[in-house]
Amino acid sequence: MVSTFPRLLLEHAAQRPDAAALREKEYGIWQALSWSQLAALVREMAHGFAAAGLRRGDHLVVVGENRPRLSAAMLAAQSLGAIPVPLYQDAVAAEFVFPINNAEIAFAVVEDQEQVDKMLELRDSCPQLKTIWFDDPRGLRNYAETGLASLDDLCARGREHALSAPGFFAAEVQAGQAEDVAAMFFTSGTTGNPKGVVHTHLSLIDRAQAGARFDHLTPQEEVLAYLPPAWIGQNIFSFAQWLVCGYVVNCPESASTVSIDLKEIGPTYYFAPPRVFEALLTSVMIRMEDASAAKRWLFGRCMALARRVGPALMDGKPVSPIDRCKYALGNLAIYGPLRNTLGLSRVRVAYTAGEAIGPDLFSFYRSIGINLKQLYGSTETAVFVCLQPDHEARADTVGVPIEGVEIKLAESGEILIKSPGLLKGYYKNEAATAEVLTPEGWYHSGDAGFIDGHGHLKIIDRAKDVGRIRGGAHDGAMFAPKYVENKLKFFAHIKEAVAFGDGREKVCAFINIDFDAVGNWAERRNLPYAGYTDLAQKPEVYELIRDCVEKVNADLAEDAMLAGSQISRFLILHKELDADDGELTRTRKVRRGAIAEKYGVLIDALYGGKNSQFIETAVKFEDGRSGSVSADLKITDTQTFPAVRRAA
Q: What is the pLDDT of residue 647?
């Protein structure tokens, strides 16, 4: 039976009071918070919020990394019938203005001094934001702003309130209903202002339960919460499913310690977008490039075997006894130590979502014995729409519809979804709600795809981004930019890519190199450079990237539908694409329209046959200063290949 999040908390506290609910790494030591301790903390905070004036239906903004007391603050707000609104902690202050004003938010709980400063900066733009509580007091001793207090002060005030109203908390929790609004998540805002996606306890808990049943999750799972809590993917795994299953959520000490914490915790249930898996693989490849010739030879031989045998073993398919023995030896020498180095040695189920993952990247992890699977969903669907069953994980699909989900395809190829996890609506935006929700309850996903012969969903691209090549040898051929970009990003030396080609006779691309990987490559070749811009324009680096692009072209030529998407020309950008510069969303999705507008002169140069183009771009630095980066960018032609015609 679907309940509410505060009721689930109290059930765990009653049934397993001393079991660990949350762990936080502080000063290098993991500190555990039991379910009973968490329930007591939530009760104190709820009383404190009530004393401060937070009421049923009010919104509470929450900003910070994954922290036990921030999760407790969300539960405390929900206990009163208030609605937590998590926002991205790496956003600049100006990005908070629209969500805070749109939701008329007067109360904020933030992690530390950095977030406090952002909130104080907003007070002129958001005059209703009166009260701010902070978790970490470091650097805030001399702050004397009106309405600013610590969470310790909030809890103390809550204890006083509880003495005068001892039955208040229990009554408020009891008054909550599954159909009440549980949280609001703001979308990335790739095409305008972000939209507030309203979810109920029912929609979030139902999908969390369906996902838990699908993968047989238990209270014994260990999860590492290291992605932004404002992203619904992280919120589902480290909040909704955490409360449904009762497993342990571990909060890293900082972003810089995540890789160490991953190895220490050894999660059994792991979730990451493709960029995280790309970064992990890049770190491995950098280390292998620095290894001795003998180790590189052994690694290459073992990985060739793993690519041939590993996926079949993961899928339970027959493998010859000789290959099984070879793989077992490889597991002792390479695969096991590699899983341990990645921190994934105990993973039972790993998921990736948020963006399509490159097939080679996906196969790599499965080939070394990691049960990596794909899922399909979005903020509006409470994440869980399609999941890949064990032994049916394939790189080119995102799984089967799970219980409660119906899928149908519009004539345009757009995927329509009906599910108990659908959003209640967009906050104060009936027009946008009507665009995505039909009167019959179908949700317009905006994705183009189809159901294959095995009942698995295949995603081609965003429906609005799928285009056609016009003119030339491939006139009328399909152009799926994300598919091409993901193939490029598999290479350790390529961090980001943006492909263009819709309505044109050929495909061209912008590429960001991975500064760490290419820097390491350059240093081993005694190639000097003075920073990203200098390194990116080295002729040797262009040759390195051209080799990657041409390998992608050869691969695309194998697919008759996408052979026209081969890249004819490319350039390496003089700066990394950055969310602070409006080029990526906070979930690192490419703002394709903004990039095309900002770098129109570069696109014209690519298609105009130029060999180089000067560009100067305004940038924002991490310390808040503004500046500019300029360079004369080289433009390079690449080899394309005839489409491979397969015998019928």
A: 43
